């Protein structure tokens, strides 16, 4: 991400009611600034949020990808051209130069919440 | 550059220019080919398939082209001037040569009996001969082939396929006297008599007679037996075409054939001869394998190689009128002291003979009729010690256990292309670790294909494990997973991976298991956990396009649609601003629907009587049709009616890959059924069923599985075929490579589907009946279910806000995605588009 997003204050928004997010079944979330997030829960209960836009095609489709693992690393495969990304780091597992931004995500009382600012360890 | 002239563009001449063109990387030779036929080389061995739907184009061997090759067809060489080293042709062209190759082939021998040249008398060698036979068969009822050899039986099959009552008249006491013995000959006679071919052996044809109209009417057999015949085909043998060589003063054999030495050179060191025109040590070979071997030798010699031809294996395995016939090594037991071991099972329709050395330790040759599966193992063993009791070797399952282990390195695995086990092992050592790589590297298995099972065995013996693992999560192949799921009654992916796999799965195993579960009838594909397994398109029951929007294809069975329904499609497209295009499968594709629009579009279509067309699934797409007898003045069956019946029967069946089909109402084949996974073509008597065709990256024509079927039998065969494919094919393996991967290929498939060799036909049909009974429209089911409908929103927290990255522009009056997207290239995130 660019420095403009990093200067914004960290605030959390309700992404969806907890019961809407099923294991390995992604959801697309629209942030107030119109950034699109793909939100996932894995089968072991972990929550992940990454860019929804596929960096290879520019289409907002990552949330519709198949969730799984590669040698234990939790992954999502873009439904467009099947490029596989780590859900943890957003890194493409086939192409070192390509990655998705990742976003802080937490379980609220009745909702899943996403920070409106990307993690700083991701560009 | 030196000049090479090749006279003759048959199979062997073609093989020569192909081999030389491949190897002459320094461009030492400029090649000029002169052929008298009106077309370039074609597969004469497969000639009879011309009556079975193959076209001249199908038979073509392709053209060797390049700046250093000139091929002239329809032009015959008339004179060789050895002093000036030129060849003169019928067009007056004079071609200078540094080297000349005579690949002039042979002509059919027609015995000079009275009436042999009457209208209605034919020979069987070229496509033009076949066209003449076809024309002559029009209105004819009975055809007689004179000569019961290999080619004669092929010709008899051709007459049968043309709808004639076929007779074969052979002078020798039994059929195929050159290849097989009397015991085998009499079994073969029984088998083909059962197929409706009348066989007369030990019988001379003494005259052909004409009726008043001047055409053939009957034959005299022996002294005075009359045999009615509207058409006669002579197939009693061939004569080498050595006349050019003779006139040029080259040495020819006593009984014909241009004499060559071990380097395939004639009595003139600048002239070679190859194939059926050549006489090597008194033998003229009438088979393709020795001809190919000579072509390879000459190609090598032309590039200063040392290859020689020292005689050839005349082993043959072929299918005549559907009957396996094989002969190898010393089939007639002519070696002094040779011993025979014979199994003659007239009731079971099998004959097998092994010829052994006088001490019964070494295999010298053999004959197989009815079941020639042992051929691939036995032929390479010729000259080697017997690995097992000879009787065991010729029992039906005797050789399957034996395999490549038993063979010495010198054993020839592929006789068509003379590839030994040692050469294959060497190719494997150089990194060719699967069958396609071995084929490409050694040419083994590329001609008749009978040795492909042996190639697999040689790979296995070399320790190359052909990994069947689906992905890192499942060590099983798709077919094994089908077995496991059926045997255990597993209904979910998570239970399957817990019990039989590792990890959480991926975009390979999840859709594969989803497809298997769906084809075993596990309910709607978006039910619960199943939704998370589905591949891109299945997941939203529509086809994702490059900008993340979807295309929608309603089913239009057989391509038949009423004006009212057509208007509904037009109105939906107009109201939702969708790009509209007619597909190759005779339906209409509506592009540019946003995820949240899909249920609204389906609602309109379902209300008008449409349903999902499954364009998104690895499942049956369309059954295309021509209008058939409904409208067409040539149609012989109701192709639209059948296409609709098939499409409605197999719709929604999840399979290893997409399935396409078509039905043509007559042999003109306007529906292009032979380009489909299963295609049906009408005949006067019923329907022909073709399988294994496809377009795409490697286009392929479908092969005939069964002919002249009534509609109910046809449906049962297709039921069996599709279910067998669904259960046993690999992931993303279309029907053509699947059939090729079956041990025994198309013949095995026919055994399973038509003759129920595995005893599973009833079960396969029952499984299909169950599929048909449980079919529901996937779109209507979503519209009726709030949980499933909840998936079709743009954003979980803003369900009706359209994705802001999607926008359209107008091209040729229709909407198309605005941003040209860089497919396959990493692109920076378009910042302005996300704001």
From TrEMBL, chain A:
A GO biological-process term: nitrate assimilation
PROSITE patterns on file: NIRD, RIESKE
GO molecular-function term, one example from the UniProt record: nitrite reductase (NADH) activity
Annotated Gene3D superfamilies: Rieske [2Fe-2S] iron-sulphur domain
Residue span, Rieske domain: 13-114
Keywords, in A-Z order: 2Fe-2S, Iron, Iron-sulfur, Metal-binding, Nitrate assimilation, Oxidoreductase
One Pfam family, short name: Rieske_2
Cited SUPFAM superfamilies: ISP domain (SSF50022)
Enzyme Commission number(s) of this protein: 1.7.1.15
PANTHER family per UniProt: NITRITE REDUCTASE (NADH) SMALL SUBUNIT, PTHR40562
Protein name: Nitrite reductase (NADH) small subunit
UniProtKB/TrEMBL annotation, chain B:
Residue ranges of domain FAD/NAD(P)-binding in the record: 4-279
Stored CDD domains: NirB_Fer2_BFD-like_1, NirB_Fer2_BFD-like_2
Organism field: Nocardiopsis sinuspersici
Binding site residues for siroheme: 670
UniProt-annotated stretches for the region Disordered: 811-835
Catalytic activity: hydrogen sulfide + 6 oxidized [2Fe-2S]-[ferredoxin] + 3 H2O = sulfite + 6 reduced [2Fe-2S]-[ferredoxin] + 7 H(+)
Record domain Nitrite/sulphite reductase 4Fe-4S: where: 617-758
Role noted for this protein: Catalyzes the reduction of sulfite to sulfide, a step in the biosynthesis of sulfur-containing amino acids and cofactors.
Cofactor or coenzyme needed: [2Fe-2S] cluster; siroheme; [4Fe-4S] cluster; FAD
NCBIfam families listed in its UniProt record: nitri_red_nirB, PRK14989.1
GO molecular function: 2 iron, 2 sulfur cluster binding; 4 iron, 4 sulfur cluster binding; flavin adenine dinucleotide binding; heme binding; metal ion binding; NADP binding; nitrite reductase activity; sulfite reductase (ferredoxin) activity
SUPFAM superfamilies attached to this UniProt entry: FAD/NAD(P)-binding domain, Nitrite and sulphite reductase 4Fe-4S domain-like, Nitrite/Sulfite reductase N-terminal domain-like
Quaternary assembly: Homodimer which associates with NirD.
Positions of the BFD-like [2Fe-2S]-binding domain: 413-460
Pathway: Nitrogen metabolism; nitrate reduction (assimilation)
Residues annotated as binding [4Fe-4S] cluster: 626, 632, 666, 670
Keywords carried by this UniProt record: 2Fe-2S, 4Fe-4S, FAD, Flavoprotein, Heme, Iron, Iron-sulfur, Metal-binding, Nitrate assimilation, Oxidoreductase, Thioether bond
Domain Nitrite/Sulfite reductase ferredoxin-like: 545-606
Name of a matching Pfam family: Pyr_redox_2
The record's free-text note on cofactor binding: Binds 1 siroheme per subunit.
Record protein name field: assimilatory sulfite reductase (ferredoxin)
Biological process terms in GO annotation: energy derivation by oxidation of organic compounds; nitrate assimilation
Family: Belongs to the nitrite and sulfite reductase 4Fe-4S domain family.
EC top class, as a word: oxidoreductase
